[in-house]
Design brief:
The chain folds into 2 domains: about 10-140, YaeB-like (Elongation Factor Tu (Ef-tu), domain 3, Beta Barrel), CATH 2.40.30.70; about 155-230, RelE-like (YaeB-like fold), CATH 3.30.2310.20. The chain has 3 helices and 12 strands. The protein has helices at about 135-140, 160-175, 180-185, and strands at about 10-15, 30-35, 55-60, 75, 85, 100-110, 115, 125-130, 155-160, 205, 210-220, 220-230. The chain has about 230 residues and is mainly β.
């Protein structure tokens, strides 16, 4: 038996590549995006009443991780990528049907557009459904998860004077919290856990239309080196 689903909207996200996206929603409150609804859902009647809601669940497709052959076990980044667990014990992107879910903050509702923050979705992500977050039903006070019982520890982050000035200038241009976004995402140490970076090695990622570059001057510390606008 098979089913066919179609997206209700496409997310326009600050994250232009998978590297450095937070591994769970809400870990980077400064991460923003706009969900552009597709016809017929771009009619204002589809979101009537949603202005009374602070958060929503997004059901979406991991559109850059779809696979023909299902995986029974995966290696979650949270465990360093060297320990396998059953796929249903993880939130890894390699899903049997490529479906993900995230609870995100609803900042503003417009006909055909939802402004969101605390997102962890790649730009261009197809969203399959939107559901209001219901605190009395969705909060489970005695829930536990021994695999991921707390947020990942933050790594120390420092700025070069040049990079901080650049980030502040770009924040004014974009009207976005660029400094906070960089700090919140990089403090989660996006490099693969199996890598031991040297001070000479440079890392980079694109947020919005910005290229952010950094290195690890010492173990347990990130230094942001540059925040520049991508060439048109």
């Amino acid at each position: 038996m098979s089913y066919r689903v179609s997206p209700v909207g496409i997310l326009r996200s600050c994250f232009k590549e998978k590297f450095a996206i937070p591994r769970q929603p809400q870990l980077a409150p400064a991460a923003r995006g706009v969900l552009e609804l597709l016809p017929p859902f771009d009619d204002g009647s589809a979101v009537a009443g949603l202005e009374q809601v602070s958060h929503v669940w997004l059901l979406f497709l991991f559109h850059q991780a779809l696979e023909d052959k299902p995986r029974l076990k995966v290696r979650p980044p949270r465990l360093g990528g060297n320990r396998a667990l059953g796929v249903f014990a993880t939130r890894a992107t390699h899903r049997p049907n490529g479906i993900g879910q995230s609870v995100v903050k609803l900042e503003k509702v417009e006909p055909g557009r939802l402004h969101l923050s605390g997102i962890d979705l790649l730009d261009g992500t197809p969203v399959l459904d939107i559901k209001p977050y219901v605190p009395y039903a969705d909060i489970v006070s005695d829930a536990h998860n021994a695999i991921a019982d707390a947020p990942p520890p933050a790594i120390a982050l420092e700025w070069s004077d040049t990079a901080l000035l650049q980030a502040r200038e770009q924040a004014q241009r974009l009207g976005e919290p660029v400094v906070e976004l960089i700090e919140q995402c990089l403090a989660q140490d996006p490099r693969p856990a199996y890598q031991t970076p040297t001070p000479e090695r440079r890392y980079g990622v694109q947020f919005w239309d910005l290229q952010v570059r950094w290195h690890y001057p010492q173990v347990g510390c990130i230094r942001v080196l540059e925040v520049v606008r991508e060439a048109a």
